[in-house]
Amino acid sequence: MKKANSKGIIETEGGICAPKGFKAAGIHCGFRKNTSKKDLALIVSDVMCNAAAVYTQNKVQGAPIAVNKEHLKDSRAQAIICNSGIANTCVPGGVEISRETCRLAADALGLDAQDIIVASTGVIGQPLNIETFRQGIPRAVKKLSYDGSDGAAKAIMTTDKVKKEVAVSFHLDGKRCCIGGIAKGSGMINPNMATMLSFITTDVAISAEMLKYALESNVVDTYNQISIDGDTSTNDTVAILANGLVGNPEIDRQGEAFDLFCVALRAVTETLCRGIVKDGEGASKLIECVVKGAPTGRIARIVSSSVTQSDLVKTAIFGEDANWGRILCAVGYADADFECGRMDITLSSAAGELEVCRGSEAVIFDEDLAKKILETDEIKIVIDLHDGLKEAVAYGCDLTYNYVRINGRYRT
Amino acid sequence: MKKANSKGIIETEGGICAPKGFKAAGIHCGFRKNTSKKDLALIVSDVMCNAAAVYTQNKVQGAPIAVNKEHLKDSRAQAIICNSGIANTCVPGGVEISRETCRLAADALGLDAQDIIVASTGVIGQPLNIETFRQGIPRAVKKLSYDGSDGAAKAIMTTDKVKKEVAVSFHLDGKRCCIGGIAKGSGMINPNMATMLSFITTDVAISAEMLKYALESNVVDTYNQISIDGDTSTNDTVAILANGLVGNPEIDRQGEAFDLFCVALRAVTETLCRGIVKDGEGASKLIECVVKGAPTGRIARIVSSSVTQSDLVKTAIFGEDANWGRILCAVGYADADFECGRMDITLSSAAGELEVCRGSEAVIFDEDLAKKILETDEIKIVIDLHDGLKEAVAYGCDLTYNYVRINGRYRT
C-alpha cells in the first residue's frame, strides 16, 4: 500500500466491519459436508446503503446475478447473503432459489427482499436446498456482530487456503472514514471477473452514481487484471455498500474527495486482488507483470494479461527458469496493435533485478542471479514496449502440480 | 480416416516419401547435446515444386519465417531444411543465419537458395551456430533416400514422444497419387498455428494458386483448431510441396479433382493434428470437442476451441471427473455472439455415451458410466447449441502433472 500511504491512507483492522455500522457473520449452515467449514456469510448495514455491483462477462451466469440485477435497479441495498459450496448455476429453478434466499434473509432481518444482495459460489449444476437456508439464516442473524468480518471472510472461501480481508482508513473533511473488503478465489479466475466474489463496505457518504463510477473504473485495473487459470467463471460479483454513517458531505461529483475515495478503494481492491492470485489454486508464486511504454492503457492491460495467462510462462516461473522467450512469445500473441521489435524485459524480486532481453533480442545475463530472483515467492516482470507512454499491471500466479491435483478432483 | 475412405482414399506407408520423387533424411547434427537425438531434417524433391506455406499469427516471429516469406514469393520450392533444439528467434542476426542455412543447403544440393524453405524449432533467444549447419548439411544430403521420411519426422521432434507421420493414396484420372506429411508439437500449441511444424509433400500436379487455396482453407479446421496449452508460438509453419510427378492434368480450378485433393489433404492434416494433441506435452488424453447447432462455422470453431483450451476442463478430464459445469462455463466465455440457454452436452468415448446437460441445465446421470467414459484416452465432448446449423471440431488434451514437470524445466 505504498501509493496509498502517500495520501494518508493507512491499513486498519476489522475488514468489512471497519466502517461504522456494518455487522457480519459466518456460520456452517450445511451446504458443505465438512461441518468445520463455514459456508454461509451475512453482511448487514445498520442503515440503508447506496450500492453498486459488477458481474462476470460470461454469457452463462449464475442465478444470483439475475436477482442482483433486479435488486440493484434502485442502487440501494442493506445486506449481502452468500453461500459457498454450490454455485446455484445451471440448475432448474435457480433464480427462484436465489429470490427465496433473499426473502428469508429479509424476513429474518426485518428488511425488504429487494434490499438484499445474494451470491453463491461452488460447483455448477448442483441444486441448492432452500431448507438449508431456512434453517441457517436465523442462526447467521443471531451471530451478526460488529467484529464479524473474519467469520464472513472465511464463510465465502471455497478452495482458498487463506482468507482475503483488508480495511483502510483515511480522512475526509476531518472525519475518519473506512473502506473494508473481503474476497474469495481461487480457481476460474480471469480478466473480466473471476470465480471471485468480493464484498466491499464503506461508511463514506457517496452518491449511488459516483459509487458506481468509482467501482467500475476500479475493476478495470484490479479484478479484471487478475488471472489464475484463464477461466472466467459464471458467478463473479464485486459488490460495494456505502452507508454514509461518517456524515461527510456526500460525494456527488468528481473532485478531491472522490479522488481520495478512489485511491483508498484501489488500496483495498489491489490488496484483495494480490491476495486472490497469491492464493490461486495450487499457486506457489505471485507474478506481477508491468507493461510500460504502450500506445494505450488498454493495450498495456491486454499485453500484461497475456503474459500472466500464459501456461508456459506460469510453468517456467514455477520451475524458476528464466525462459524469457516465453514472455516475449506471450506478448507477441496478445490481441492488440502495437510494435513488438523494441521490447526490454526485466525480471525482479526481493532478491534483485535483471535485464533478460533488450530490443526484443537476447542479452547475456547472470543465470545465478536469475535463479535467485525466481526462487522468491513474488516475481515481477517489467516489459517496456518502447511504443508509447501508457502502463498497466496484471497479476497472476504460477502453474503447479497442485493446480492439476486440485482441479483434477474438485467434485469428489 | 472414415470420411476419407469413402472417397477411395487409403492410408499408405512412406510418410513424406510416399509421393513420387521425394527424398528425406534426418541426422544428429549437433544442435542438441544428446547425440542419439536427430536434430536436422532435409526434404528434397527431384524436380521443382509448386509450394505454399502458412505461418504463426504471433507478432514475434522466428527468423526463418521472414526468409520463407521472401523465398515463397514465387510460390516455388524444391527442398525444406529444418533444425530442432534452437528456434532462431529473437537473436541478433537470426535472419542472416536462416539465409545462410538456405545457401549451404542449396550449394550441397545444387539448387538455388531461393528454392529452399527453412524452419527452426526449440528454445527462443539462443543463437544458432552456422558452423553446425556447415558440417551437418553435407552429411544430411548424403543420407537422403526415398524412404527417409522416418528420419526427417524424428529430426524435427522436440518434446514430442512419438513421431507424427502419415501418408494417403488416392486416384486422379486413373493415376495413383499420394500426399504425405510429418509434424511436430508439442508445447506452445494453439489456434492460429502452434509451436508446430508440419511439412507436406504430394506428387499431384496442382497450380500454385490452387495449392495455396487448398492449404489455407484446410488449416482453418485443422491446425488452427488444435490447442495444447493456449500458447501460440513464434515459429509455426505448415509448408506443402507439390511436384506434379504423377502427371495428372494440373488442377488449376475448383471442381471434382480439387475437391478430392482437399479431402485427401484433410485426411493427412487431421491425422497429424490428432497426433499432435494426443502427444501434447504431458498429455494423457485426447479431447475432441464438437460444437453443433451454431449460427456460423466461425462461432462453432471459437466455442469448440474455448472448451479445449480451458485449463479447468483439461484438468477435469485428466481427473476423469464429469464436471460439465466447467464445459458450460468455457462455452459461456467464448468470445462470440450466440445463445447460451439451450445447450445439450454429451460425453462419449469407446466406453459409451452420456448426456450430462440438457437445455443448459443439469440432468441426473449415471456417474459410473461417466467414470468409465472418462477413463479412456480419447474423450469426445459434443455440444449442441441449438442456435443454428453449423458445426466445427477442436482438438485438445488434458492438463497433467507431467505438463507442469516438462515446462517447469524446459531449458535445463
CATH class of the largest domain in chain A: Alpha Beta
General form of chain A:
globular
Question: Based on DSSP secondary structure assignment, what is the total number of beta strands of chain A?
Answer: 15
Order of helices and strands of chain A: HEEEHEHEHHEEEHEHEHHHEEEHEEH
Structural class of chain A: alpha+beta
Summarize the structure.
Two copies of one chain form a homodimer. Helices cover 32% and strands 27% of the residues of chain A. Chain A has 412 residues and is an alpha+beta fold.
Describe the structure in your own words:
Chain A has 412 residues and is an alpha+beta fold. Chain A has 2 domains: 2-278, L-amino peptidase D-ALA esterase/amidase, CATH 3.60.70; 286-408, Roll (Ubiquitin-like (UB roll)), CATH 3.10.20. In chain A, 32% of the residues lie in helices and 27% in strands. Chain A is built from 12 helices and 15 strands. In chain A, strands 1, 2, 3, 4, 5, 6, 7, 8 and 9 form a 9-stranded mixed β-sheet that branches. The longest helix of chain A has 23 residues, at 256-278. Chain A is globular. The model of chain A is unreliable at 189-194 (pLDDT under 50). The interface between A and B is large, with 65 and 64 residues.
